[in-house]
Amino acid sequence: MTATEQHPRHRLDDLLQNPVRFSIVAALDRAGTLGFREVRDAVEITDSTLSKQVALLESAGYLAVGKSFAGKMPRTSLALTRQGRAAWAGHLATLREIAGDHSQ
Amino acid sequence: MDTSPAITAEEARLLLGRADRLSRSAHNATRWPYIAFILAFGVATSMGTFAMALATGDAFGVAYVGTLFVMFALLIFFMVSITGRSAFSRSRRWTGYVASWFVTYAAAISVVIWAHGSVLLAGLASGLILAVAMICAGREARA
């Protein structure tokens, strides 16, 4: 079997196959920039789990993490990078292919 | 050796559905300050310009200062509430909202200056601000 004949699952992004990372990126897809707490609430995970997965996604270049202050309160914002968006789009396209939906 | 986990068509469909739901819910949960701001700002400027166009003397002063106060209070509340996700509002869509509000607001202020006391023109100009605000809020809700 040649590379072009491989099952589409081989093209799924390894990093995005983790359910928590998949959910984090899904939450950020439409919203653009979200606060740390907003992502935590949307994905329904603990702060420490989110921190760990965010660090992995950031080191892979998929996420941009911004730090700011609202008064004296620190705020952490999360946004997908261009690379992260491309990886997410490719991952979804592969999932659609596996699902048999070739409309998009 | 094949290390990629097998994934069935049904699993892929479930994952796609989950991604869509999460994406929508996260977006919807964070959109309310934007819609509330557009509506409140539209109502405040509409009522304010209507009052300014018809009021005279001290009442005009109260309408003028009151409108400015509410506008600035809403702007400050909005800036605070979107801290950390302001990139959301820096879009072509929002440029359109601001431009369309500004045009109708300028028309209403023109009525205040040059057609003061005209109920018909004041109603039309202020009603236009309200209509534009509602259209923008509706568009934002569907974005």
What gyration radius of chain B follows from the Cα positions, in whole Å?
22 Å
Shape of chain B: elongated
Q: Mean pLDDT across all residues of chain B, rounded? A: 88
Task: State the order of secondary-structure elements of chain B, H for helix, E for strand.
Answer: HHHHH
Plain-language structure description:
Chain A has 104 residues and is of the alpha+beta class. Chain A has helices at residues 19-31, 36-43, 47-59, 82-99, and strands spanning 33-35, 63-70, 73-80. Helix content of chain A is 50%, strand content 18%. Chain A has a three-stranded antiparallel sheet. In chain A, helix 1 (19-31) packs across helix 2 (36-43). The longest helix of chain A is centred in the C-terminal third of the chain and has 18 residues, at 82-99. By secondary structure, chain B is an all-alpha fold. Chain B has one domain. The interface between A and B is medium-sized, with 36 and 28 residues.
Secondary structure elements and their pairing?
The complex is a heterodimer of chains A (about 100) and B (about 140).
Chain A: H1 19-31, E1 33-35, H2 36-43, H3 47-59, E2 63-70, E3 73-80, H4 82-99
Antiparallel strand pairs in A: 1-3, 2-3
Chain B: H1 9-29, H2 32-54, H3 57-81, H4 92-114, H5 119-142
Nutshell version of this structure?
With 104 residues, chain A is α+β, with helices and mostly antiparallel strands. Chain A has a single domain (13-91), classed as Arc Repressor Mutant, subunit A (Orthogonal Bundle). Chain A is 50% helix and 18% strand.
Considering the chains and any ligands shown, give keywords for the structure.
heterodimer; A: about 100 residues; alpha+beta; Arc Repressor Mutant, subunit A; three-stranded antiparallel beta sheet; B: about 140 residues; mainly alpha; about 80% helix; elongated
